[in-house]
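QA checklist item 7 of 12: single-chain prediction sanity check.
[x] sequence parsed
[x] length recorded as 264
[x] structure emitted
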Amino acid sequence: MTSVPPVPVAARWTAILLAGSRPGGDSFALANGVALKPLIPVAGEPMVVRPVRALLDAAEIATVRVLAQERDAIAAVLPSDPRLSVERSSGTIAATIEGLLADPATHFPLLVTTADHALLDAAMITEFCAAATGTDLAVGVVERRALDARLPGSKRTWIGFRGGAYSGANLFAFGSPAAVRVVGLWRTVEQDRKKGWRMLFAFGPALLLGAGLRVRTIDQSLAAIGRTLGLTLRAVVMSDPLTCVDVDKPVDLVLVERILKERG
């Protein structure tokens, strides 16, 4: 009997790229000669172009939806591609994600990342999507020792657990609309999303204590949150520590351009 070759798995992820802007102007953007942070030049091209290109290059991604308040300004710098759309976002990240999860037209699973993820590449996306499959919510993270080995002295926001300290990698997977339960809590601490202790406290004093005393691993902590919310949560520890490097301030811009130059 003649064997039938396997059918390639079709791209099925919807990528959401958040390219919002701060109300009242962004001093970082203005200092770099542009009105919006996603338009800051990185190695000769608008920053937002880089993660968009990585998403379009990844085999797992079927469509890319860029969300921004200043839709026309962002769309003007992006490539023309039938898989790419630029849409108007809500005022905050939490409100934008809540709207997506509640929209019956949204195709799951969703991969969510940000316009300042200038070092994102297709390999990172492939690794994250593979590990995040089957969850209600997965969060990409990088372990501190890995980043310290690659970029000694780099300053990031770290949350300590038993077995290591972790920083967010600006990669989120939403596998179902049920993940809106997490986003609802996120909204209550959105202004403090860089402060790890505030985020942990939103999920309960016991979880905060567990992390503070290093008695729980990151997986045990997320499992506890999942039980509380009735969700399947997972931390995806990324193998490339550069996954957690974004462009949030001038020193980051210098660092990212140096790394890109090293990549050639």
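[x] summary fact logged: Residues 13-142+167-188+232-259 form a domain with the Spore Coat Polysaccharide Biosynthesis Protein SpsA; Chain A fold (CATH 3.90.550.10).
[ ] second reviewer sign-off
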